[in-house]
Design a protein that fits this description.
Number of strands: 10
Distance between the termini: 21 Å
Helix content: under 10%
Largest sheet: 6 strands, mixed
């Protein structure tokens, strides 16, 4: 599994930070349920999560968990990273 998590520094511990907004709710993490046995071309270096200063791209997998070489894009907005759609 690949995962990106958002946290804030609290007075005594790290606290969850709900900065990812999909169509239904706010999230503190985004994950990709990846199993190397489902990846046909294991020699290829797949980027399941791409994190940039203004966006987070999450690899889209099909029903058999195979990479589709398309990404779900979350772009930085005023209140966090908001789901924008599918990009290549």
């Amino acid at each position: 599994m690949h995962q990106v998590r958002a946290v804030e520094v609290g007075p005594k511990q790290l606290l969850k930070s709900y900065i990812f907004q999909n169509k239904q709710k706010k999230l503190d993490e985004i994950s990709v349920d990846y199993d190397c046995h489902d990846d046909i071309d294991r020699s290829a270096s797949q980027n399941y999560l791409k994190v940039g200063p203004k966006h987070v791209d999450v690899m889209l997998l099909n029903a058999q968990y195979r990479p589709q070489n398309k990404y779900l894009r979350y772009a930085l907005g005023a209140k966090g990273f908001v789901y924008q759609g599918i990009v290549k």
